[in-house]
Amino acid sequence: MTVSLGEFISQLGSSPVLVVTVLLTLGVVLVNGWTDAPNAIATCVSTQAISAKAAILMAAVFNFLGVFVMTLVNASVATTIYNMVDFGGNPDDALVALCASLFAIVVWATAAWWFGIPTSESHALIAGISGAAIALHGGMGGINGSEWIKVIYGLGLSTVLGFGFGWLAVKIVELICKRMDRRKTLGFFRYGQVAGGATMAFMHGAQDGQKFMGVFMLGVFLVNGQANVSNFEIPIWLMVLCSAVMALGTSIGGHRIIKSVGMDMVKMEKYQGFSADIAGTGCLLLSSVTGIPVSTTHTKTVAIMGVGAARRLSNVNWGVVREMVLTWILTFPGCGLIGFLMAKLFMWLF
After folding, report:
1. What is the pLDDT of residue 3?
2. In the chain, what is the greatest distance between 2 CA atoms, to the nearest angstrom?
3. pTM score
4. Using CA atoms, how far apart are residues 57 and 279, in angstroms rounded to an integer?
5. CA 250, CA 246: separation in Å to the nearest integer?
6. What SS3 state is found at 24?
């Protein structure tokens, strides 16, 4: 099932509830653009391979392309997110609960951005809609365990492979370039980092763009009273809309996160930044193809840790890492609780 642009605009003009749902969803996409997407370009900015302004513009463009191209090729991540919770039953209550979860995500992500902590909007999204579904059903009946387990797999996959790929990539680069004149390789790694940042931004769009489009489609179906749609197609107009909003978010923010991830956590040279980008891209590509929703923030940061630890563990600022890990741990219960409470409040009010 799909929704044409004409049908969507017609419904938008006659349904204030749909307007609110769309604004909240796009608000989450915008927040993701300025808090999550900058992780993709943190390394190339920190090593001065490219200026922050140019990198943010590049990330905006490649986020757009990632959403558009990967969704055309393989939309399995969006399907996983769509099926993760059951908002069935009464479509009106389900829509209120969904709006509450989106509001919770915006609150959580904005607070983390203010403190410069690269929280995962992917984890926040999953936690927020799960908390709202629990509030709606009054128990765990609204959670689809078979889809939720993919999140656990993704968490383990992004941690182990991200760190491992980062460690292995930098070791291979050092081995290949061991006898080369560093002055001659500097130019290659500088441009290689720019290309690596672009591919990371592309894969961020491919992963996170699909997650939010799945939620967007859920909201549209609920507004139409269709609470149990199982198969759907993502229309091209929605790909363009979500990718454009994500690109806008990246273009208007991101400096705080770039500093935390690319400058404070590990001091890197250009070849190390290149290795981290290659490692992160490989992990995200594998996850997207297999339909496993992973956090781009999580993947990129553990790849950077792997690169830093390859030389010696003291290269990593474990104090910054501890803050990030604590935020990741708190995201599921924290954003889930906010989603639960907001859903209860919204259902009481409306």
Report:
1. 77
2. 69
3. 0.77
4. 22
5. 6
6. helix
